[in-house]
Design brief:
Radius of gyration: 19 Å
Number of strands: 0
Shape: globular
Helix content: over 70%
Distance between the termini: 24 Å
Structural class: mainly alpha
Number of helices: 9
Order of helices and strands: HHHHHHHHH
Amino acid sequence: MKGLLAKDTTLMSIIILAIILIYASFSWLCPIMIDDYMFWDKYLTANNGSILPSLSGYCNYVRDLWLYENGRLANMLCAPVVLWMPKLAWAIILAVIICAIYLSAASLVNGSRPVSPLLLMSVWICCILLLPWHDYSSLMLIDYALNYFPSTLLTLATIWAAYRIGSGRRFRNARYCLIIFVAFLTGVFHEGFSMPLLAALSVIAATRRFSMPGQW
């Protein structure tokens, strides 16, 4: 986080903690419903009605999703999260992911300058007011959260990496391998995010006549 945040670390820490506590509480208190039970049922069907962890049952679950739903990694992770992960643990993980989304978005907006408390608050408020969290898609449900929040964070990370490489700042080997892994996860996690991102990157490459750095 060095260089990312402004010098007013106390106020920034309070805002970050508030974001995490609010979303962790919201996710923890929100009951499972709708598609949570659908993927729950798919795992039970694939595992002969047993809720217990089973490699063969999970492989059957993944196979059925691949054949009859899609190859989306988020859906493949849904049953393990819903059935086996403590709800409080997932609520905390989800809250950290959401906080990282706000920090990443603020960092992209601010360029190379540190993120100030005011900017982070502004990004947070804009997301609350402008994004459709209040509609009927129930984005705080466990399976919907898996579909959208990790995908958003992975997409922002990939955009940041592409921008950094495109501006001539390359990654060293170890970090570049990590970026490749993140880009791969971005591609397989949710096609609703990865396909538009791929289209945008393709347009950028075409406008530059594909004269991009090798890492790009």
